[in-house]
Amino acid sequence: MDFSFIVVQLISGLTMATFLFLIASGLTLIFGVGKVFNFAHGSFFMIGAYVGYQFSSVWGQNFWLSLLCGGLFAGLLGMVAEFFFLRRIYGRADEGGFQILLTYSFILILDDLVKLVWGTEYKSLAKPPALSGAISMGGIVVPTYNVAVIAIGLAVVVAAWWLLNNTRGGRIARASALDREMLSVLGVNVPMTMTLVFGIATALAGMTGVLAAPLRSVTPGAGIEVIIDSLIVVVLGGLGNFWGAWLAALLIGEVNSFAIVLVPKWATLFSYLVMALTLIFKPEGLFAPRKVRRV
Amino acid sequence: MASIRRIASLCLLLLLTGMLTSALAQEKVIKIGALYPMTGRSGIYGMDSVAAAEMAAEEINAKGGAAGYKIQFINTDSKAKPDYSVTVAKRYISDDKVNFLFGVVSSAVGLALTEVSKQEKKIFIGTDHAATELTVQNLQPYYFRVSNNTFQSMAAGALYLKELAQTKPWKTIAYIGPDYAYGHAQIEELKFNLDRFGVKYQMVGEFWPKLFESDYTSYITSIMQAKPDILVSGFWGGDTVAFIKQAAPYGLFEKSLYFHPDAGGNYELLSAMGDSLPLGLVLSARHHNNWPDTAMNKDYVSKFHKKTGRYPTYAAEGAYVGVYAIAEAVKKVGNPDDTEALVKALEGLKFQQPEDPEGFTSYIDPASHQIVQVQAIGVTVPNTAFPPATRMLGQWKIYKAEDLLPPKEWAAKNKP
Amino acid sequence: MPSKPKTANTWYLLIFLVLFSLVPVLKTTNYQMLLAAHVLVWGLFAVSFNMLFGVTGMLSFGQALYYGMGAYGAGLCVKYLGQAWFFPGMALGIVLAAVTAWLLGHLIIRVSGVFFTMLTLAFGQLGWQVMFKWYSFTGGDDGVQNIIPPGLFSNKVIYYYLVLALVGASIWFLGRLSASPMGLILRCVRQNPERVRFLGRRVRRNQQRIYIISSLFTALAGGLMSGVDYSIHTDMFYWTTSGHVILMSILGGIGQFFGPLVGAAVIVTIEDVVGAFTEYWSLIIGTVMLVMVLGLPRGLMGEISQLWTRLPGRQQALTTREEGN
């Protein structure tokens, strides 16, 4: 294994990690702020991809506009789902179980709606022409699009960190994770905050769906396929922890990337192994915030 | 008074509907109970199969049916789940009184259903699943398959590679395929066939992403490191699309020959990829929309397109042929109820199919209950005759059907 | 909860047994009996799962591991040793499941809440991957076919009654357990583990015990299923199987002992009926689920018993209920 190959493999792992993170980030945000586990997060990812396909491939719009519209649509749908349905079960006894049940019903419904609108044929979305090539440097070849994806992932981490720490909205979101009652006493509309956060998270998932579409096929059933991997990332990163999710995604991506080279037959086992080991030795997640902040 | 009259008329109505349904029940029908997936990743194959089977049933019924029996086709979404499919199959047999079990995309479902078929002594016509063991070690008297299995594809593939070595010498092979039975079977069978045909090769890597993997980047860079002359692929459906899309910018297809003989040339792939499908990939499938160039194939493809507004994937042809196989067998026997006679009729049944080239007629091998068909392997070339695909296969290489059946050594090697 | 529902549960159990024992007599087709057998097996699975979730408050997302072990115990023994080994194989699967639960319990029960859920998921998926990849031994995702119970039990009606008897006995046992002092402690563990410690009871030991018991009966359900369907496959280990049983329990009502059983019956039947008449089953089942979650916050059985307690003259019972929820 020579040096340039190691670098190539590292970058490959990074690409995988970025997608993992982009999907998981919304999941961890919703969990952090509202203690809601959105099992249907992958379905919003799928919806985003289909809407992006509609704009880009059917209506011939610009890729980045399609990306925006895919995200916007998924976000709106997420807000509708939260406002009309999820909100009704907050505070119920055994809320966790009902969250799974309710969001699972979203998966079932959205799957069939997608089928009704777009059928079951595989859909395809072209990359923006500017990013279709590859960057070659000292024997290392990396597709431009992958580089762009990694950059977007980084931008999302930094932007989210900045927004959460330096804006009023971010402070409210963080505060509602700590003490909702107090926040509502202070005159903040907590339910509305939750709807908005849900919207942002699902919009992120939708945008990721469009971003991933040129590298994958847009197919029905994608919602359920991505959810377990994202779940692993969220738990490893420490529930509700943005930076943690990014680092956890990185860990899973790189472990996978090198497992493929070293033990190709058992590579798919590793993400579960990492999760099991982590939870046994550090149950609160690898990158959990300090106890003080979690309260 | 009014109420009595109402009750009387209601009774009359009931009586009438009762008579009507019993009259309908007396109409002679062949009931086919199909289990195709209609949702998820393999939903497209289910949709196409059902459309094609209905098309065949309409054609047969329009000509007065088979031996006076009309074909009635019912389908339940198998959800691609073996346990659920077993339940439905048992309902078909005990409640719906079907004459034939039919269909199935997933081999796992096929294996579970062949068990039901054996227990209940009900003929099961397999139309799309490719696991070779169904017609070798798991064969039971009531199972028949009208599409080719992976062994036949791989035997044709091995012959192709043998010929290739003469024009363009190659030495090394790497394999990538989904990590489940289908993926593993393909490379085992390819190796067996390469050995059988005396082809020398060196394996430089086997890669096993999980089924429905979304990110192949790390696999692609590992393959590039292994530098195989030939990259054999065993994906199906969306996995192929994702792999090719992700591998193209790395230049993988300029460095290694992409060779995908079982499901690589399926139409849903050609249509989903459009221009992003590289030229010069070597692919095949169990039916091609542009090969053979016979009137029957053209007619079949255009009828399907007229009915559904899209061109068929190969799964559709399997279902289409399956319904015709049933009709032919019933014609021979005279009724759809004498199972043992139908088994005899299906064994060795010979009939013209859309995928038969001039001068060849497919038949069901009496010993293995496996259809014997010609295989064609092609290369991706520009062709816009079947939009939205902009590439189709061309430069065909044709392989004789008899060379492709699993030989006795294979069956012996795989005795349970 | 303990005193009153005990008698009620006995009645429910009797009604349930009588109803299901009539199925082979009243059925018009074999299929109805098959469906009833599915309800029984899933019902046992759901009730034993609910001993963990509804009673003790441990949401396991990995019970499929034990379900699969039971099924593969019977299936692999039949495959390699012959039909006569069906029942010994099933027993072996159950013992293996109990041992695994004991071993894993040490690792898993140290954490609680969502971490417990995730850890059970991780181990469940690891088990699935191993079964899936160990192709030469387990047959991978091709599964194992031709699993037919030996002798008399190859008759479907007799096997059905065997399933009914075993499921009935298991549910009776679990019902007794749930109403016993141990059941009471388990409920306390769910509501307030701290206080259980103050009372001098060990939380973890009780959790460990119920984890093993639940897994054991789950494995029994798996073993029984292999003889109902004649074939098994690795999907039984997959997380969707664990998810399925969670749905059944919540839909039926986790606060009620018989809730999960009712949930199993409802889901098995709905899936079958809806699946038979439309390919858009997922839209319909999803909508039904959505409406049920929003409209029936206590699950089906929970709502029924709520109505029951609201009947005139039964006002006192309300206080017991409040505590139970």
What do these coordinates show?
The complex is a heterotrimer of chains A (295), B (416) and C (325). Chain A has a two-stranded antiparallel sheet. Mean pLDDT of chain A is 88; it is low at 291-295. Chain A has twelve helices and two strands. In chain A, a hairpin with a 2-residue loop joins strand 1 and strand 2 (140-143). In chain A, helix 2 (41-58) crosses helix 8 and helix 2 packs across helix 9. Helix content of chain A is 72%, strand content 3%. Chain A is globular, with a radius of gyration of 19 Å. Chain A has 295 residues and is mainly alpha-helical. Chain B is an alpha/beta fold. Chain B is 44% helix and 17% strand. Chain B is built from 14 helices and 14 strands. The mean pLDDT of chain B is 90. Chain C has 325 residues and is mainly α. Chain C contains 15 helices and no strands. In chain C, helix 1 packs antiparallel against helix 7 (156-179), helix 3 packs antiparallel against helix 4 (86-108) and helix 4 runs antiparallel to helix 10 (203-229). Chain C starts with a helix and ends with a helix. The chains are: A mainly alpha (295), B alpha/beta (416), C mainly alpha (325). Chains in contact: A-B, A-C, B-C. At the A-B interface, helix 1, helix 4, helix 5 and helix 10 of A face helix 2, strand 7, helix 7, helix 8 and helix 10 of B.
List the helices and strands and how they pair.
The complex is a heterotrimer of chains A (295), B (416) and C (325).
Chain A: H1 3-34, H2 41-58, H3 63-84, H4 95-118, E1 134-137, E2 140-143, H5 144-166, H6 168-178, H7 180-185, H8 190-212, H9 222-236, H10 242-262, H11 270-281, H12 291-294
Antiparallel strand pairs in A: 1-2
Helix pairs in contact in A: 1-5, 1-8, 1-9, 1-10, 2-3, 2-4, 2-8, 2-9, 3-8, 5-6, 6-8, 9-10, 9-11
Chain B: H1 2-26, E1 29-36, H2 43-62, E2 70-77, H3 82-94, E3 100-103, H4 107-120, E4 123-126, E5 143-145, H5 150-167, E6 172-176, H6 181-196, E7 202-207, H7 217-226, E8 230-233, H8 238-247, H9 252-255, E9 257-260, H10 267-273, E10 282-284, H11 295-308, H12 314-333, H13 339-346, E11 363-364, E12 371-372, E13 375-382, E14 391-399, H14 408-413
Parallel strand pairs in B: 1-2, 1-3, 3-4, 4-5, 6-7, 6-8, 8-9, 9-10
Antiparallel strand pairs in B: 10-13, 11-12, 13-14
Chain C: H1 3-26, H2 30-55, H3 64-81, H4 86-108, H5 113-133, H6 135-138, H7 156-179, H8 181-191, H9 193-198, H10 203-229, H11 239-252, H12 259-277, H13 281-295, H14 299-310, H15 317-324
